[in-house]
Structures are given as C-alpha cells and as structure tokens.
Design goal:
Layout (H helix, E strand, L loop, with lengths): L9 E4 L4 E4 L3 E5 L24 E3 L6 E6 L4 E7 L5 E7 L2
Antiparallel strand pairs: 1-2, 2-3, 3-4, 5-6, 6-7
C-alpha cells in the first residue's frame, strides 16, 4: 500500500482538534469546512501546506504524543534535548 504522508509520529486529540507530528509540531486544526476541503493525494513539498487550515502552537515544542487528560488539560510526552522523554500535564492551548 503506497503512503502519501511521511511523518515519524502522529498523535491526534479531538476537541479542541490538536495534532502532533514530527514535521510541523503541534497544530490546532480548523475543521469547520472539512467536508469541502480537497483531499491530498500526492506528497506535499516541504514548506507548503495543503488541506485543512491549521495554527502551529509554538509553545508546544518537542511533543511526541498527546492526549486529553481532563476537560482543561492535555497529557504529553515531550522529548528533551538529550533524547529522554518527559511526561507532562499541560493546560489546553
């Protein structure tokens, strides 16, 4: 099966719609018009965005995975400079 998306890790959290991946960091995705967005069927060049609009959350650097912790917090695995992983609870952005 051919792959059209190449990312090392992906973690998606719904409500708010957050996605963490190794290429673009943590993003807040706008899904208001999801039914009208053209699908991505070919690789997208570096530095180019296509598909749903999103906002990169600059304060969430080094996040490998995330999930909802409670109604106001997320729990994340954050990779430190030395490569170790830290488990952190953070307020929803």
């Amino acid at each position: 099966m051919p792959s059209t998306l190449s990312i090392l890790s992906v973690s998606i959290l719904m409500t708010p719609r957050l996605l963490a991946n190794s290429s673009r960091g943590v993003m807040r995705i706008d899904t208001d018009k999801i039914e009208s967005v053209e699908g991505i069927v070919a690789p997208v060049a570096d530095g180019v965005s296509k598909g749903l609009t999103y906002e990169t959350i600059a304060t969430l650097k080094g996040i490998d995975q995330l999930d909802r912790f409670d109604s106001t917090h997320i729990i994340v695995l954050r990779r430190a400079d030395g490569g170790s992983l830290n488990l952190e609870s953070l307020p929803l952005p």
